[in-house]
């Protein structure tokens, strides 16, 4: 039941922030930047590398991944989930290209300090040229522009959406492709 509720909230937030579907960045490459396409498996590998190279936090295990409503769900820790939407769903993490990755944080059960660290690692996995200062600025900007149902962008091929409800926080990393 909880997963159905979370799925509903993710769908609602996706529609609110307008991040679903293929990202078409035609004509905006100079302003927003672009990143290379990456598979779900490659993103998870990069995320795990960031975790193991820079912390003692738990990394993602394939056996903790489930598929629901054409999304890949990874149970990171209690109340903390990585949800990845592919551009087109084929049920193959080695083939599916990442459209958007989300860090879902349950306010009641998640360790907020760990959530912040995981977010930093997820942003780095999506674009390893980001600095800590750029990540901090991007998160701050995302929180600010979320009041207008917008996403923040720093010109490096990622947009970051922020959604906060009474029971959870969701960070949405939208990859911008050519």
Main features:
alpha+beta; 178 residues; 36% helix; single chain; 7-stranded antiparallel sheet
Distance between the termini: 38 Å
In total, the number of domains comes to 1
- The helix tally amounts to 5
- Note poorly predicted spans: 7-12, 14-26
The biggest sheet amounts to: 7 strands, antiparallel
Major sheet: order of its strands? 1-2-3-4-7-6-5
Structural class: alpha+beta
SSE pattern, N- to C-terminal: HHHEEEEHHEEE
- Helical percentage: 25-40%
Spatial shape: globular
Number of strands: 7
Rg computed from alpha carbons, rounded to a whole number of angstroms:
15 Å
| Percentage of residues in DSSP E strands | 15-25%
What would the average pLDDT be, to the nearest integer?
87
Folded structure, characterized:
Residues 7-12 and 14-26 have low confidence and may be disordered. The protein is of the alpha+beta class. It has helices at 2-17, 29-32, 40-54, 112-126, 132-145, and strands at residues 65-68, 71-77, 80-86, 98-106, 152-153, 158-164, 168-175. The chain has one domain. The protein is globular and about 35 Å long. It is built from five helices and seven strands, in the order H-H-H-E-E-E-E-H-H-E-E-E. A seven-stranded antiparallel β-sheet has the order 1-2-3-4-7-6-5, sandwiched between helices. It is 36% helix and 25% strand.
